[in-house]
Specification:
This protein is of the alpha+beta class and 150 residues long. The protein has a single domain (2-148), classed as Nuclear Transport Factor 2, Chain: A (Roll). It contains three helices and seven strands. It has helices at residues 2-43, 47-50, 70-81, and strands spanning 54-62, 66-69, 88-91, 97-101, 105-118, 121-136, 139-148. Strands 1, 2, 3, 4, 5, 6 and 7 form a seven-stranded mixed β-sheet that branches. Strand 1 (54-62) and strand 2 (66-69) form a beta hairpin. The radius of gyration is 20 Å and the shape is globular. The N and C termini lie far apart (63 Å). This is Nuclear transport factor 2 family protein.
Length: 150
């Protein structure tokens, strides 16, 4: 009987551990999809789609620009979209980290490159970022951004 209870206990622990591990994997996949969709809109200069990824109370902390609010952030991106050259963003492979925030959403950390051609020369910069995603009943939006290492 003790052996049977021990085996049952072992399987319960394994199952519980597996269930807890699947949540971070699913969350990582969800945030990776959102990251891809958001920056697809960015790279296509699709402002109506792009701005839907942010909460109206967005706070964007930029190491070389200070604290920016939603309206300023959207205006700044519109100015980027209006430039003569195309600025393209790519996530650096293998740098995406996702960490759950209990009863709120997720932390999204990584490195990305932005590139454009200027005066016939390819210019590329690599930067670090941290985003806080808010999950409002299945609707994911970014509420905070920390953009640094510029």
């Amino acid at each position: 009987m003790k052996i049977l209870l021990g085996i049952c206990f072992f399987w319960i622990i394994c199952w519980s551990s597996r269930a807890q591990q699947s949540k971070p994997v699913e969350l990582h996949q969800q945030i990776a999809r959102l990251d891809s969709a958001m920056f697809h809109a960015y790279n296509q200069r699709d402002m109506p789609t792009f701005k839907q990824f942010f909460t109206s109370d967005l706070e964007w902390f930029q190491d070389n620009g200070g604290l920016l609010q939603y309206e300023t952030v959207i205006s700044n991106f519109q100015n980027i979209f209006n430039r003569d050259y195309v600025l393209t963003r790519k996530l650096v492979p293998g740098t995406l980290e996702v960490h759950p925030i209990k009863d709120y959403g997720a932390i999204h950390i990584g490195r990305h490159t932005f590139s454009h051609v200027e005066n016939g020369k390819l210019e590329v910069g690599e930067f670090k970022f941290l985003m806080i995603w808010k999950n409002d009943q299945g609707h994911w939006k970014i509420s905070r951004v920390v953009s640094y290492d510029h």
